[in-house]
Design a protein that fits this description.
Rossmann fold, single chain, globular, five-stranded parallel beta sheet, alpha/beta
C-alpha cells in the first residue's frame, strides 16, 4: 500500500461524478495516496433477445465503461487547476466492473481509506436527499465517505513546495 493509503472514487459519467473525480485527485495528492477510480457497468438488457436482437456481451459493456472512465480521468488530469492543486503526481488505477453499483462500490471500498462519490443535487429538495447509491454507501461503507455536490469545486491544496 502507498504511504498515504487509497482514495477511491466512483464515476458514472455524470457531472457530479466528474466533480467528485477532480476532488478525489486533489485529495489523493494531499494525502500522498493512490487513487482508485471505479466505474460500474450495467448488465446488458437481455429482454430484447426473444425478438431477435442480439445482446451485448458483458465484457464489451465493461470495456466501454472502462474507456469512458479513462477519458474522464485523462480530462481531469489535464485540467490545469487540478494539476496545480494536486502538485504531486497521483498513481491512478481504473477498475470497471459489472454489477449493482452499491454492491460493487462497497466491495471495492473494503481496502480504501476514503470513498468519494458525486451527488447530482437536482433541485432544492432533491439536493438535500441522497440517491440510492450515495445513501447505500454512506450507510454501509467500510471507510469514511465524502459526497461531493455537482456544484462544488474541489478544495485547493497548496503545492507541496510552499507548505511550511
Amino acid at each position: 500500500m502507498v504511504a498515504g493509503g487509497t482514495v477511491m472514487v466512483g464515476v458514472d459519467g455524470s457531472a457530479g461524478s466528474e466533480v467528485a473525480l477532480r476532488y478525489a485527485v486533489e485529495e489523493a495528492a494531499r494525502r500522498g495516496a493512490r487513487l482508485t477510480v471505479v466505474t460500474v457497468a450495467r448488465f446488458p438488457d437481455y429482454s430484447a433477445t426473444p425478438i431477435g436482437l442480439s445482446p451485448t456481451a458483458i465484457a464489451d459493456v465493461v470495456d466501454a465503461a472502462r474507456g469512458r472512465a479513462r477519458t474522464l480521468v485523462d480530462e481531469a488530469m489535464a485540467d490545469r487547476a487540478v494539476r496545480v492543486a494536486a502538485a504531486a503526481p497521483v498513481e491512478v488505477t481504473i477498475d470497471a466492473l459489472a454489477g449493482v453499483p452499491v454492491e460493487v462500490l462497497l466491495g471495492c471500498a473494503a481496502g480504501a481509506d476514503l470513498l468519494v462519490l458525486g451527488h447530482r443535487g437536482l433541485g432544492a429538495v432533491r439536493s438535500a436527499v441522497l440517491g440510492s447509491v450515495g445513501l447505500g454507501c454512506v450507510l454501509h461503507a467500510p471507510c469514511p465517505v465524502t459526497i461531493v455536490p455537482a456544484t462544488a469545486t474541489a478544495p485547493r491544496v497548496e503545492p507541496a513546495a510552499t507548505r511550511g
